[in-house]
Amino acid sequence: MYIFRICQIYFFISLFFISSIVCADQSSITKDKIQNFYNGVVSIDSIVPDDARTSKILGTVRQGSGVIIDHNNILTIGYIVIEASDIKIGLPNGKKIPGKLTGYDHSSGFGIVSPIIKTNLMPLKIGDSNKIELDDVLLILPSPNKGIGSMAKMVSRRPFVGWWEYFLEKPIYTLPMNQSWAGAPLVNSKGEILGIGSLFVADAVSPGTLTPGNMFVPINLLKPILNDLLKYGRPKSGMKPYLGISTNDSSGKVIVTRVSTGGPSDKSGIRKNDIINAVNGNYVNSVKNFYMTIWNSGDIGVNIQLEIIRNNKKVIFNVKSVDRIDYFIKNKSY
User: Fold this and answer.
1) Domain extents for the chain?
2) pTM for the full model?
3) pLDDT, tens digit (0-9, with 9 covering 90-100), for 28-42
4) Strands (E), the chain
């Protein structure tokens, strides 16, 4: 009965948002306009070596979409292409061409891919993700090779904490869910890029409320780092110290759920199921608090002191942080 009630609530919430989209003024979104928008959307397929750092978690065969941002470059979500040894770009005309990873930023999750051969790309304009209103009609546009596009609405902007040392202050949450979100651009009625599809979320409207939707990385996070990504392959400033540790705080304690093999924490002796009690002498009780304490400790390379509870005993470990990109295996596409 409880599950039925939850499903019923979700149905009515979804029906409300779908109805509001249908009833919204869509006169500015025509079939021809949408077709023009699709001229700036591509598919991306990548192959990742078996020995890559991310192969066990993300797999060795990855796929999604991307959006053309200028005549030479395509923006996507980074997990599709990071550590890829082979990248194929599917153009709007159906042709597939080889690509390379030009830039990656872990803090936002953005990845930039570029064709290896000279190609005539038709970009979409970069918009302003700070100007999205709750009643704006938005479009989620995966490549037709990967899924069906859909209308959506933004339903919230709130922090997101990822167990993989990832945090976004104001990502864009949308309803209803699009099943082909990975790398798909979120655009407005003018075809301006507002975000890049990152995740499926079960509670798009608010934490704990069953409302399956999507989370998009705001396009404004790209603007201050774009030139660095194109020139150097990574941001030259603002990079966060990386420890190579996954955590969970659902029990009210920060518990280590995974230690990246060969990463800083692994080398220092941190183990799965360790409880992180303090960072540099500061008590932590949530994953967000844990991240913020680390990132406020200094630049990449800073030594982080972790107070661990293991077998009911407190143990101190010193972990030398690194640049996350340097931890990844380099290959011909990067």
Assistant:
1) 245-327
2) 0.90
3) 678 899 999 999 999
4) 41-47, 61-68, 74-77, 86-90, 96-104, 110-115, 138-140, 150-156, 160-162, 166-168, 172-175, 185-187, 193-201, 213-218, 245-248, 254-259, 275-279, 282-283, 303-310, 313-320
